[in-house]
Amino acid sequence: MKMNHLIICIFFAIAIFLCKASIAKPFLQSPTQFLPSTLEEPIAKPLEEPDVRKGRKKPPRHPQSPPGPPPPPPHLTFDHFKLAETWPPTFCKDPANNCFHDWPTINRFIIHGLWPAKKGSDELKDCDKHYHAPSTEHLNGIHTKLTDYWPSLHKAQFQVQANINFWLYEWKEHGTCSVQLLNFHDYFNVAIKLYQKHKILDILKNAGIKPGGTYSPDEISDAISKHVQFTPQIQCKKIGEISYLSEVRLCFTASKDPQYINCDHHGSLFGHECDAEVHF
Hints:
Elements: H1 2-29, E1 80-86, H2 88-93, E2 110-117, H3 143-149, H4 159-173, H5 184-195, H6 200-206, E3 214-215, H7 217-228, E4 233-239, E5 242-253, E6 260-261, E7 278-279
Antiparallel strand pairs: 1-2, 1-5, 3-7, 4-5, 5-6
């Protein structure tokens, strides 16, 4: 009897063990099969931004756009320059001019002035109503050429100072009208460069027009025009009853690098004191 009871207990123990094992088996096969599906895939990490503090390179910058075109030039109050060149012997023949005694023998035309002008009207003058004389130290680099090409013809105790006074007068009277293009130094430097483009006396001599002779204004104008390819203006001075060649004026574009142009017919290409025959 006891043996039978023991066998029955063993049987129930085995049955209980097998039952528990069959229930636990699915969990042992896949511990995650009953978890939500979102946990089956690993969660992606957010992208890390470059850390410049760790020595990583900064992202490349967009290339800068090229600079735009330069601003247009200011609206000018004049449309051309006029370079006036004086013939010293005629200037010194005029008793009204207290001329330095050496100048009548000078053998070249010299600069009278560089004048901004507008077609159909006279040259511009005295454009700075609050004028203050600039320092002539700005002319140190071209002082020698100015003394040679643009001297004062008036007699003076100190010729150097007379020259400086003449240059300052021309700057105040005409140069201040060109400040939209040229400053104090550039005004005189441009005048020198234009003067060096030609030699009026050589042009006239090569055309058979020589000091001491008598010629028509047309002959003088044509000789210069054929050389520079543009029409000049001729000015004369009446001394007594005789008309003398006093000045030749050449016209140029209103720019920092002026080029020859025809002088306009405002008034006349020949001064009112030019007769049919002009003494040179």
